[in-house]
Every structure is written in structure tokens, then in C-alpha cells.
Design brief:
The complex is a heterodimer of chains A (177) and B (313). Chain A is of the alpha+beta class and 177 residues long. Chain A is built from 6 helices and 10 strands; from the N terminus they run E-H-E-E-H-E-E-H-E-E-H-H-E-H-E-E. Helices cover 66% and strands 2% of the residues of chain B. The chains are: A alpha+beta (177), B mainly alpha (313).
């Protein structure tokens, strides 16, 4: 099993519903976020193009955060989801330094926190909170090993990219372009 | 003109707008660790070369300071941890891929070793020292018989500790400025330079001071070569590393890096040491302080510059 997410940059309107849903679902402390929206405007005026992306932990296959964690708190869970075990984390910050996506932060309680792909929901057969609330239905989640999962199906039909592939992390969040 | 404007909704404390996950604690820890590594390396090496009498400050006097330096460094590291009650987790795991795990275990070996060596030579600082209990005297006698083995361990572990202080940074490929394997040798050279400088300060033998001034000059030259080599390597690398090198080549930390690390921390003390070797009267405390200051600034600036360099935005 390999969980992955695909996000359609052509359909995303940057409403930040995914951000609020995540903060509510996961009790994210005020002032922090596990997912966020980025708008990139690129080109030469007047030929400009704007891409809107909802970003989060990429749950990489080759996660530098798992590799550098000195205690094993950062680990791969079922389906390749990268998780942090709170009471094994010493809060050294090595994983924060190692993430090219800057997807992690130190929780006010001291441990390092980040997106879990809403594993508690996924285990029950539900979608992650961000996917579930998206008003434009621009997010797809599922198992890459299952050819009939929403994410597998959409990746078969659309062009996509990943963020910072040159960092060698083999991310599992795909952006449809 | 082609332009790119990025607007991010993320504003996580410690992450945005600039990564500040590591403050003063890590550079202090790396500086003290590097200095301790330099002192242990020279103590072990010159003991094995049979020069304990010729260079007493290096072999016997300076290493007594090492446990203090390591304790202060480890305390700084402890302060850096945000989930302090769980720090012991470091010692329930051996993670070969994690430089921090390597460092924790190296320190686990080197700290008691340095304490034993310091205890064996405590009379260099306190001539009337007497171990209060018989079992401590027995232990002293026991370890005195294994000085050669300990010197070997100190030399090797000193090198590992010195290199580790750089590898800790260089293992993070997400920070392009750190992601160069030259940081290990560079920090080792800096640690050896700081160690030889401190030995010069402690020594009261003219001959020993001269030898360590010469060693320091060679190490400074090597260190300078590594810095140039590092910047050249970045310039010949990917765009993120070219951008990272700009931090020291015209970017925000250019002036502090070249003034504090290269000029005040390396060139000026090297010139002063050469003058001293040519029999000018230079108070030894001046070049030594400058070298220690430069050695700390190198770590401080590399730590901050690395956190300024990123892949995305």
C-alpha cells in the first residue's frame, strides 16, 4: 500500500478551506498550520500565469526526516505515511532542518508536528479532512498500488509534477498541471 | 523581464519567513565540541609519539579542560531540545543514518574517556590534589596502566568528533549551503586550529608554543583552502547551491563572514603568529582569542546561512 495525494492546480482557487479543515480536525495550535496555500505568479507582463497549490508534508518515499531522526520518532507508518511519535521525539529540530518543503514545525508542547494524511480518518476508510472539505474537489487521495483508487486514476490521465524533485526525496504529493 | 512572485499562506513560528529552528545553542555546542576534539586529538597524538614531557600543556594540562568544555557544550545542546523530558531517547536507539545519533553515541564514549584522562592529570592544575577515597586511588592506578590505549581512542574519537561537528550540517540536503561534504574537514580543521591555539595559551614552555604556532599556521592554511574550495564547489553546482553561496559572496552575511571568520579569525592571528615566530613580542592571548572567536563565528555564520538557504521559497 502506498498512500498518495494529487492536487489539481487548475481547479484550486486558493480558498484555504483545506487549511481550516486540517486545523480543526487535528487540533493544530493557533498560529500554526500543517497545510497551506501558495500562489506563484510567473512570467513576463502581460503574459503571466498563476498557479495555486495547497501544500503539506509530501510523505516522501525517501524521507530525509526519517533518515536523520536520532531517536526513530519520525518513521514510516502503514502505506508509507510519515509520522512522528510524540513521546519519542526529543525536539532536536534535525527533521525540520532536513525537510526541503519546510513542512514541519515545533509544536508548542515541544515535539515536532506535521501533516499525517489524517491517518486516523484514513484508517476508518475516510478521506483526509482537507480532501473531504475541498469545495472545488481538486484533491484526490488513495492508494497508488490500487489502480482503481481516485489518485491512481487521475494520475493516469493528467500531466503532473512534484515539488523539488531534485532534492531526491521521492515525494507522494502530486500536482496536476 | 521575467519575474516570479510567490505568496505563501504559511507562517509557522520558527519556520517562516526565515528558518530559525536552531539558535545560538547548536553553534556553541559545535564550537565547544570542535575545540574539545582538537585538544583530545593533540593530547592523544603526542602521547603516542612519546612527547608527553616535551609538550606537557598539550598532553597533560589542556585535556583537563575537555570535560568542562564537553559538559558546557552538552548543556547547550540540551537547551536546544524542545522536548527535554525525552532526551534519553537518544540512548535507546542507534540510527546509523542519523548524524545526530552518531554524535550522541560518540559523545557517550568520549566524555567519560576525557574525564578519566583529566582525572589522571588533575595534578597539573592542582598539585596537592588527593583522591579522598581509596577506591578512587585504585581506579587511578588501574587507568594509568591503560594510557596508551586511551591515547589511541582519544586520537581517533577526537577526529570523529571534529568531523562530526561538520557532518551534522552537511547531512541536511534540504539546506543547500550545508550540503557539502567539505564541511566535515573544514570544521575539523577549525577545531584543530582552536585546540592548538588554546594549547599555546596554556603552555609556559617557549618550545611548545612555537611548535603549536607552527601547527596552527598549517591548519589555518588548510582551513582557508577548504573555505575557498567550498565556495568554488557551490559555484560549480546546482542553482540552489549557487544561490546559497551568494549569502557569503555579496549576500546578507558577506561582511560578517569575511571580516570575522577570514580576516579577524584567520589572517590576522596567522600574521601575529608568524611575527611571534620571528621573535616579535606579541602577547599570545591576542592571536589565541582571535582564533577562538573566528572558530565560533565560522559555526555561527554557517549555521545561520544554512537556515537562510532553501529549495523552494
Amino acid at each position: 500500500m502506498r498512500y498518495a495525494m494529487a492536487i489539481d492546480t487548475k481547479k484550486c482557487v486558493g480558498c484555504s478551506d483545506c487549511v481550516v479543515a486540517c486545523q480543526t480536525e487535528n487540533d493544530v495550535p493557533i498560529g500554526y498550520c500543517r497545510d497551506w496555500v501558495v500562489e506563484v505568479t510567473d512570467g513576463t507582463y502581460p503574459q503571466l500565469e498563476t498557479e495555486i497549490r495547497s501544500e503539506r508534508c509530501n510523505h516522501c518515499d525517501n524521507s530525509p526526516c526519517v533518515r536523520c531522526c536520532p531517536t526513530g520518532a519520525s518513521h514510516y507508518a502503514e502505506g508509507g505515511i510519515v509520522l512522528v511519535t510524540k513521546n519519542e521525539c526529543i525536539g532536536c529540530g534535525a527533521c525540520i532542518q532536513s525537510c526541503p518543503y519546510d513542512a514541519r514545525y515545533t509544536h508548542p508542547d515541544g515535539y515536532v508536528d506535521k501533516c499525517t494524511f489524517c491517518m486516523h480518518r484514513v484508517k476508518k476508510g475516510m478521506e483526509p479532512a482537507c480532501v473531504a472539505v475541498c469545495p472545488t474537489k481538486c484533491m484526490y487521495f488513495g492508494d497508488l498500488d490500487d489502480p482503481n483508487s481516485p489518485v491512481s486514476k487521475i494520475l493516469k490521465t493528467r500531466k503532473f509534477k512534484v515539488l523539488a524533485p531534485e532534492a531526491g526525496t521521492k515525494p507522494n504529493v502530486y500536482y496536476l498541471i | 523581464m521575467r519575474e516570479e512572485i510567490i505568496i505563501s499562506g504559511r507562517m509557522n513560528p520558527g519556520i517562516d519567513p526565515v528558518l530559525t529552528a536552531w539558535g545560538w545553542e547548536i553553534p556553541v555546542y559545535l564550537f565547544l565540541g570542535g575545540l574539545a576534539a582538537g585538544l583530545l586529538f593533540f593530547a592523544g597524538l603526542y602521547y603516542l609519539l612519546g612527547k608527553a614531557k616535551k609538550y606537557p600543556a598539550a598532553v597533560r594540562k589542556a585535556p583537563v579542560l575537555v570535560p568542562v568544555l564537553l559538559a558546557l557544550g552538552l548543556f547547550a545542546l540540551f537547551l536546544d531540545l524542545h522536548h527535554k523530558p525525552y532526551f534519553w531517547r537518544l540512548y535507546t536507539t542507534i540510527k546509523l543514518q542519523s548524524p545526530m545519533s552518531w554524535g550522541a553515541w560518540t559523545l557517550m564514549l568520549i566524555t567519560p574517556l576525557s574525564m578519566i584522562w583529566a582525572a589522571l592529570h588533575i595534578r597539573e592544575w592542582f598539585p596537592n590534589w588527593d583522591w579522598k577515597f581509596q577506591w578512587l586511588r585504585d581506579l587511578e592506578k588501574f587507568f594509568s596502566a591503560y594510557k596508551k590505549q586511551m591515547a589511541w581512542a582519544m586520537t581517533i574519537l577526537g577526529l570523529i568528533l571534529g568531523i562530526y561537528t561538520g557532518i551534522l550540517f552537511s547531512a541536511f540536503n534540504a539546506r543547500p549551503l550545508w550540503n557539502t561534504s567539505i564541511l566535515g574537514p573544514l570544521f575539523l580543521a577549525s577545531g584543530l586550529s582552536a585546540g592548538s591555539a588554546l594549547i599555546m595559551l596554556i603552555s609556559n614552555k617557549h618550545k611548545e608554543r612555537r611548535v603549536f604556532a607552527q601547527i596552527d599556521l598549517i591548519v589555518i592554511a588548510v582551513e582557508f583552502f577548504f573555505i575557498i574550495h567550498m565556495l568554488m564547489g557551490f559555484q560549480a553546482s546546482t542553482q540552489v547551491q549557487i544561490d546559497a553561496a551568494q549569502i557569503f559572496l555579496g549576500g546578507p552575511l558577506t561582511a560578517p563572514f569575511w571580516i570575522f571568520v577570514v580576516i579577524l579569525g584567520m589572517i590576522v592571528p596567522a600574521v601575529l603568529e608568524i611575527m611571534e615566530l620571528r621573535h616579535f613580542k606579541i602577547p599570545v592571548v591576542i592571536p589565541v582569542s582571535l582564533i577562538l572567536f573566528g572558530s565560533f563565528m565560522l559555526r555561527w555564520l554557517i549555521s545561520n546561512a544554512g537556515q537562510l538557504s532553501r529549495y523552494l521559497y
